[in-house]
Fold Sulfur reduction protein DsrE.
Amino acid sequence: MAKKLVIKVTAGADAPERCSQAFTVAAVAAASGVEISLWLTGESAWFALPGRAAEFELPHAAPLPDLLESILAAGTVTLCTQCAARRDIGEDDVLDGVRIAGAQVFVGEVTGDGVQALVY
């Protein structure tokens, strides 16, 4: 089993099933004791803002706020620097526990020993 799982989610309300799958996998991995790092990019960047996850709806899926809360409690959630800038999202705007970082940090995470990476 991987020591660390890095998941990059690019989908948001524009592709709800793909988005939900990424958050579900991240939450299950965190609950299973796997070190998790979830990257919010593209349309998923909006979920770094307070209240935005609560607006997401997908029948027969776990509530996104619950998944995000469990990931934040057990792992790392990162908002892409460029994605944040394109949406005028600053560090003072994001949920507690969400960091903003760029490609250099992402590459450093996914090239570590024992790391598995998934992109949704």
About this structure: The chain has a mean pLDDT of 96. DSSP finds four helices and five strands in the chain.
